[in-house]
Amino acid sequence: MGFFDTVKEQAQELRGRVEHKVEDVQARRKAAHGLEQLGRFLFAERTDRAIVRADAEIDRIVGELKELESAGVKILAE
C-alpha cells in the first residue's frame, strides 16, 4: 500500500468519525430543544396561560424525544 493510499484511508476514517460526532451533537441539540419546548408548555400551564393545542404539541415532542432516546441519546440524567 502506497503512502497516498494510507493517507486516503486515514482521511476516510477521520471523516466517518467526524460525521458520527456531528450527528451526535445534532441529536443532543434536538433533544435539548424538545425539553425546552416542554418546559415552556409546562410553565404556561402552571401559570394559568395554557396554550391552544398544547396537548397535541406535547405529544409530538414527547414522541420525538422517545425516538431520540431509543436511538441512544441521553434525555434525562440518571
Helix-strand blueprint:
Layout: H1 3-46, H2 54-70
Feature tags:
about 80 residues; about 80% helix; rod-shaped; mainly alpha
Shape, please? rod-shaped
| Overall pLDDT score | 92
Helicity, as a percent range: over 70%
> Quick one: biggest sheet?
none
Count of DSSP-assigned helices:
2
Number of strands: 0
Quaternary structure state of the chains depicted: single chain
Q: Give me the Rg, rounded.
A: 20 Å
Q: Which class best fits the helix and strand makeup?
A: mainly alpha
Q: Please report the distance between the alpha carbons of the first and last residues.
A: 48 Å
Strand-and-helix sequence, N→C? HH
Return residue spans where pLDDT drops below 50 for at least 5 consecutive residues: none
Strand coverage percent: under 5%
Quick synopsis:
The protein is mainly alpha-helical and 78 residues long. 78% of the residues lie in helices and 0% in strands.
Describe the structure.
By secondary structure, the protein is mainly α. It has helices at 3-46, 54-70. Helices cover 78% and strands 0% of the residues. The mean pLDDT is 92. Helix 1 runs antiparallel to helix 2.
